[in-house]
Amino acid sequence: MKKRAWILVALLGSLAIINTALGDVGPIKRTAEGHPDFTGIWQPLTTAEWDLEPHGARKDAPPGLGVVVGGSIPYQPWALEQRKKNFDNRATLDPRNKGYMLGVPRVAYNAAPFQILQQAKHLTLVYEYQNSVRTIYTNGSQHPPGHIDWWLGDSRGHWEGDTLVSDVLHQHPDTWLDRSGNFHSEDLHVVERYTPLGPDHIRYEATLDDPKVFTRPWSINLILYRHKEENLQLLEYYPHTFDSEQYYP
Amino acid sequence: MRFQLSVSVRWVALALGAITVLGTSLVFGADAGDQAPAAWIPKRLSDGQPDVQGFWRTENPNAYSLTNPRTGQDGMPERTGPNAGKPPPRGPDGRVVAKTQKPSRIIDPPNGQVPYLPSAYAHQQDLYLNFEVPTKPQYVETQMRCYPSGVARQQWWNEVEIRQYPGVVFLISYASNRFIYLDDRPHIPDNIKLFMSDSRGHWEGNTLVVDVTNSNAKHRLSYEGDFSSDKVHITERFIFKDNNTYQYQATFTDPSVYKQPWTVSSKQLRVHGNDPSYEWYEYACLEGERNLDNYIPVAE
Question: Which site among A16, A186, A208, A219 is 20 to 30 Å from A230 CA-CA?
Fold first, then answer.
């Protein structure tokens, strides 16, 4: 009995050492209020930005198993036709190409780092691509009355256990959900869920509800990875300045 | 005996004079804004920073000019009437004749002018004279292109929100945001140039001192074409005097553009202080821009 106990202890001890060596160890950091502290620089590793649905490699996209729960987006018939038109003309029609803000949730799975700064009353998310800033208010406040055409929407969050639930309303209809022409209307309602899987991983889920475009709500599911480099900081990426900056100062 | 009295009187006079001078400099030093008055004791955040979070706006918000920071349309082309669209009249020095003269934002040199080298002055004048009716891409003001504002100009356009976190201060404004890191990380490599530069700060009492490098300088400093090169080194002081006021000072050093370093100073006031529920509404400059193609008569 004693011998088995010691073996168990030794096993657990080695696992702890192995875990430490891998870096993803121990409890998640918490704020003074006891919530997970998401402060840091994060980045997704999926190819959802190119195409949310499962897709093979294309000239303009790396392949991906897809992040849509259930595989495909439940478009209404007219919307499926529109998505095909978008896809066929994606090189010219994607609003990203004009440097426009990406919208939610596209900004969350864009293939670039973003930084989270966290206080009790809100989380500030700064996305390196376009250096756009988004605030998820966790102070109990409500959405302002709408509809408002905001490019990054209005985000109101609350905690359900260790999950940050962020309710997003008031989005401009002209953003796309990826580079493949997936789209929505001004009625889009997104509920994000940020759940820590450990100190260095967040499961990101988002449910998209838009009765004008889809037959039912649908969800995406992907992982956000914490950057571990020392002294990492966001740099700048303002696409709309590239063509003209030669003329300045 | 008389000699000894004279000596002691002289020493006393010297001592009194020194104390007077010292006392005067302490009083006027505080007014000139080098030091925050010791009277204000701010709330402290968990890492010891003075809590200066909230919304701030300079008392004279505009980016038209450093030397005459007037607001409104004063000195701009008239929109209606027989002179509509024509450049406003200029005085003999080439400067627009504005009805209002506000004190220059520049406190050093004392003449309130940017101490340009001759070739740099020629560039600034060229931009200045062509701002109202841009016929070339370089004459289009950076704000029209929705460029980020650069660090100093961010303080003058409109509201700036300060958010503080352990080891970092984050400033948000229309079209621009910047991180001021308070830890001991080095600046980023010199060949990376940023609109909002790279900032390393530390608190000296109630003053945030910031070392700013890596500017790409492409935002320019005013509608009148004031500018730096991307070699500029800026030192800022955010001097918090009380819960509702700070003095913003920035010294620009760039021997490729200026004869000597020069310093701006502006008063910044807390706004929306009585409204804790006040929030940013989204500013989508680029997405809302429709006129840029019509702004330049000549194709780029």
Answer: A16
